[in-house]
Amino acid sequence: MDIQFTEEQELLRSSVQRLLRDRYDFETRRKIVASEGGFSREQWDAFAELGLLAAPFSENAGGLGGGPLSTMIIMHEFGRHLVVEPFIETVVLAGGLIERVGTPEQQQSFISGIIDGSKIWTLAWAEKGSRFDLANVTTRARREGSGYVLSGAKTTVLAAPWADYLIVSARTSGEDRDRSGVSLFVVDRRAAGLDLQSFKTIDGRRAAEIGLREVRAQLLGLEGEGVAALEAGRDRAIGALCAEAVGAIGELNAATLDYSKTRKQFGTTIGSFQVLQHRMVDMFIAHQEALSLMQHFSLSLSAGDSGLSRLASGAKSKIGYAGKFVADQAVQLHGGMGMTDELNVGHYFKRISSINIQFGDPAFHVLRYAQLDAAA
Amino acid sequence: MELALSAEDAAFRDEVRAFIADNYPAEMRVPNPETDLSKEQSLLWHRILYKKGWLAPLWPKEYGGPGWSITQRFIFEQETSRAGTLPPLAFSVTMVGPVIYTFGNEAQKKKFLPRILSGEDWWCQGYSEPGSGSDLATVRTKAVRDGDHYIVNGHKTWTTLAQHADWIFCLVRTDPKAKPQSGISFLLIDMKSPGVTVRPIITIDGSHEVNDVFLEDVRVPVANLVGEENKGWTYAKFLLGNERTSMAGIGRSTRYIGKLKQIVKAEIPADDPAHLEFLRDIARIELDVLALEATELRVIARMARGIDPGPAASLFKIRGTEIFQAITELTHRAIGNYGLAIREHPVSANHFMPGPDYGHTASEKYLNARKLSIYGGSNEIQRNIIAKAVLGL
To answer: Which chain regions cross the lipid bilayer (chain A) (predicted)?
Structure first.
């Protein structure tokens, strides 16, 4: 069963396609990545203008009510064009958390800034020893007056150098690895006591290590209930990352197939060699499976099915392995050209490698998938 | 069959080990020696080995080799790679040197071999072209005779470290009418010749290792032709054989597995189920290395008895590169979220890198290692060689 897109969804897809085709070609992206800031405010404004930053939000929150399926449609196209701007961080993660656990006042004051493109957000959850465990939090939050102050350190926070606000997980009670006692906070990125050390990521983005010394923050959601909110946020982010990966996989397959039909060695096109034909058939199958699972999972997200989180891990793992296989083979079949910075193939490879780290690698998620089954 | 080394060989191993420990320059112990050293720094160890007479184990004694047995050569290769020393430039020492002393004339031997040994000349390899990758015999770079010179025109690519090179050894087409393999000659070209241009190729790890080399009306003295005109393919194949023998890379893999184990220990708590997964994955790779090392020893033992190893080099290349790729992947995974970061090139202390030092080169190594199954004859080509030459398919 394939997804029958509604008219609105088709319209969204074709308008994103048109926008990116017209103004996000590979050379433009290269310039954005090489620029001082590393992302384009102009592109971001164009996304806002087209309504992409409003798409998944409910109409109550001022959005277009497109939900996870609109995210899937957008991220699939973003994956095809290797868009570096922080849609997942700002809209899916931060926006999603604010919409679900924020107070009406917080929704009112923050979501409009996301939708109009004026404010960029990100989520700071990982710590030095946390690996992929959302509950492993040592950053501490202490109540002070009507607000809180945060102290600790967060690691590999994607898009932090671009962000205006961060959502930070910090412990209000309990031991370092307890599930309960973690809370979420909104922090102004320019707040006193917040120290940010930027670095470049393998896929041409920016991230930062963040130090927090008595940084003023406001609570987002219920105190001590942050892990459940983070898990739901991760599920939605996984839906977006999977769609992005599938977009990249499709492009890699198309490029490899095209190359194999034109590149000649030993007096014939390399696509005529059976060993490479079979490889490309396996790449095709990997893409089909990944695409199907992406749709299946996004539909479940939309419906809010039970067992969603387990399926999220399943999709992250399966699509992660598919992406790794396709990316490896796409570079291999392009030969030396696949190794170059000049060709887009290597950049898809790197984005897929990065997706496979974000929120846990395929091995982590296959294990989580198994454990959640055993626990049920 | 004997697994233990003889007393003499064991003594030799200890001597090599001690020499490395006492003499390997501290200056060369940088996070990634392949990208972080200047040309001068990367030659420091070369010069030390030269002074000791150990620079070119493969070379016959009369040309400056140490006169070692096959087993001693193997021990030396193993000890130096286990210790993580940067090997002397392969293009000079393992590739063009043996071609010159095997097929070159006396004048060429006299002129080039001492300068290779001393490190005065840095060589690069002009084999691949944009249209000639796996199918090397289709080289199109043309050399046309003009009196005492050849006029060379063409475009070489993937030329490793050409930015440092004094000389390039090139496959050029001297007979356009002959069958692909029979019209090729092996020409030595001075990189300072007018008409030689080097353009960097940046790879996905951000480093500058390889280059395009453009040759436009380059005048090359006929005296720089190695062997006979149109016989270059024979020399080229001879050279490729030498290139592949060290590709099992046992020493390097063993060293990186050691590092990987430390990283896993430091990064992943023993009560995390992922810990066991990593231990299992590492153990499987260790067994792959053990089996490849045992195969290598078997081949070395046969070679010591004078038996031609045949296309064993292809097996080493396939498995050696697959194993090393798997190690770099696992290392990249082991550092978790820090795998998102990558060092900027050229490397500078001003660039901030997050996480523990041991993870700082994991991303670039992982990306760079993708080349291993492509270069030096792709692994697909190596499988074709075994299919044809061993299995008779």
So the answer is: none
Decide if B200 touches A, using CB distance below 8 A: no
Per CB-CB distance under 8 Å, the chain A contacts of B337 are 126, 130-132, 155-156, 357
A70 touches chain B (CB under 8 A): no
Residue A69 clears pLDDT 60, i.e. is over it: yes
Cα(B12)–Cα(B15) distance, integer angstroms: 5
Q: Residue A335: its chain B contacts at CB < 8 A?
A: 133-134, 374, 378
Band of pLDDT at residue B307, cut at 50, 70 and 90: confident
Q: Residue A228, CB half-sphere, CA atoms under 13 Å: how many?
A: 9
Element (H, E) at A188: strand A182-188
Is B363's Cβ below 8 Å from some Cβ in A? Answer: yes
B157 neighbourhood in chain A, CB within 8 Å: 336
Question: What tens digit of pLDDT does each residue of B13-48 get?
Answer: 999 999 999 999 999 999 999 999 999 999 999 999
Q: Do A328 and B353 touch (CB under 8 A)?
A: no
Question: Which residues of B are tagged catalytic?
Answer: 243
* Integer Cα distance of B81 and B250 in angstroms: 8
pLDDT higher than threshold 80 for residue B232: yes
CATH placement of domain A7-119? 1.10.540.10
Q: What is the pLDDT of residue B335?
A: 97
Of A34-48, B179-193, B240-254, B366-380, minimum mean pLDDT range: B240-254
> Which CATH fold would you assign to the domain A122-224?
Butyryl-CoA Dehydrogenase, subunit A; domain 2 (2.40.110)
CATH fold of A228-375: Butyryl-CoA Dehydrogenase, subunit A; domain 3 (1.20.140)
Beta bridge partners of A206: A200
Residue B307 touches partner A, C-beta closer than 8 Å:
no
B241 in a domain, yes or no? no
User: Which chain B residues in 30-89 lie under 8 Å from chain A, judged by CB atoms?
Assistant: none
Which of A203, A118, A200 shows the shortest CA–CA distance to A163? A118
Question: Of all residues in chain B, what percent carry a pLDDT higher than 90?
Answer: 84
Let me know whether B142 and B58 are in one domain: no
> Are residue B258 and residue B341 in the same domain, yes or no?
yes
Contacts 24+ apart (CB under 8 A), A301-306: A301/A67, A301/A68, A301/A235, A301/A236, A301/A239, A302/A67, A302/A68, A302/A69
From the list B138, B273, B344, the residue facing A367 with the nearest CB is B273
Asked whether residue B1 carries a pLDDT value surpassing 50, the answer given is no
- Distance from the Cα of B331 to chain A's closest Cα (Å) equals 13
What is the predicted ipTM? 0.96
Does residue B114 belong to any structural domain of this protein?
no
Average pLDDT over residues B256-266: 97
Shortest CA gap B303–chain A (Å): 32
Residues B82 and B168 grouped into a single domain: no
Please determine, for residue B3, whether its predicted confidence score (pLDDT) is greater than 80.
no
Q: Tell me, what amino acid is at B15? A: E
Measured between CB atoms, does A176 come within 8 Å of chain B?
Answer: no
User: Do B263 and B381 belong together in one domain?
Assistant: yes
> Across the strands, what pairs with B231?
B184
Residues counted in chain A: 376
CB proximity A177 to B under 8 Å: no
Residue B328: CB partners within 8 Å, gap ≥ 6? B256, B362, B365, B366, B368, B369
Q: What is the pLDDT of residues A164-187, one digit of tens each?
A: 999 999 999 999 899 999 999 999
